[in-house]
Write a structure and sequence with these properties.
With 190 residues, this protein is an all-alpha fold. It has a single domain (2-189), classed as Rhomboid-like fold, CATH 1.20.1540.10. Helices cover 73% and strands 2% of the residues. It is built from ten helices and two strands. The protein has a two-stranded antiparallel sheet.
Length: 190
C-alpha cells in the first residue's frame, strides 16, 4: 500500500523543491532549440508561484485518488506520466507557446487517459461523466479562453492550448495501448 503513495509523494516533493527555479527550468522554445532538451520535462515540474503549485498539486492528488486502481502495476501511473510529459512537451513545440510552466497539461492528459480507461473497464457512468466533463471544459476554454480569476491567481495566462494538446495526447496514448493489448489478446487466441 505504501508504494502506491511513493509516486504522489515524489511528484509533490519534486515540484515543491523546484518552485524557486521556474525561470531556469521552464519549457522555453528558444532554449530547447538551443539544445536544453531537459526543459521538455522540467517545464512541467515548475510553477509560476505557490498558488499555481497548490492548484496543480491538489488537482493531481484528486485525479490520482479517483482513478487509482488497486491491482494495476505500480509503474503504470509513473509510466503514463513520463510518456505524457515527453510527448506533450515535444508537441508544445508545434504550438504558439514561447514559454510554459506547470503540471496542468499533464493533469489533463491523465484525466483523458484514465477516463477512457474507465470506459474500457466498463465503468460507464464515471468514464462517461469524466470524458464528457473534460471535453466540455476543453471546448469552453477554446471558445471563451481561460479564467481571469485563475490568471490573476497564478500570475500567468491559463495554458488552454497545453490543456488541449495534453488531453489529446492522453487519449491517443490510451488508444495506442488499448490497440496493442487487443492485438496481443487476439494473438493469444490464434
Amino acid at each position: 500500500m505504501f508504494s502506491r503513495y511513493i509516486y504522489l509523494l515524489a511528484i509533490i516533493s519534486l515540484t515543491l523543491a523546484l518552485l524557486p527555479f521556474a525561470q531556469e527550468l521552464s519549457w522555453d522554445r528558444n532554449a530547447i532549440h538551443a539544445g536544453e532538451y531537459w526543459r521538455l520535462i522540467s517545464g512541467h515540474l515548475v510553477h509560476t508561484n505557490l498558488n499555481h503549485w497548490l492548484m496543480n498539486m491538489i488537482t493531481f492528488v484528486l485525479v490520482f485518488s479517483v482513478f487509482y486502481i488497486r491491482n494495476q502495476h505500480p509503474l503504470h501511473w509513473p509510466g503514463v506520466t513520463v510518456v505524457l510529459i515527453l510527448i506533450g512537451g515535444t508537441a508544445l513545440l508545434f504550438s504558439s507557446y514561447r514559454n510554459y510552466v506547470g503540471f496542468s497539461g499533464v493533469i489533463h492528459g491523465l484525466i483523458a487517459y484514465w477516463g477512457l480507461n474507465d470506459l474500457r473497464l466498463k465503468r460507464y457512468l464515471t468514464g462517461s461523466l469524466i470524458v464528457a466533463g473534460l471535453s466540455s471544459k476543453l471546448i469552453a476554454e477554446q471558445l471563451f479562453g481561460g479564467s481571469e480569476q485563475i490568471t490573476r491567481l497564478i500570475a500567468a495566462p491559463v495554458a488552454i492550448d497545453a490543456h488541449l494538446i495534453f488531453a489529446i495526447t492522453g487519449a491517443v496514448l490510451f488508444l495506442v495501448q488499448w490497440l496493442i493489448q487487443a492485438n496481443a489478446n487476439q494473438q493469444d487466441f490464434d
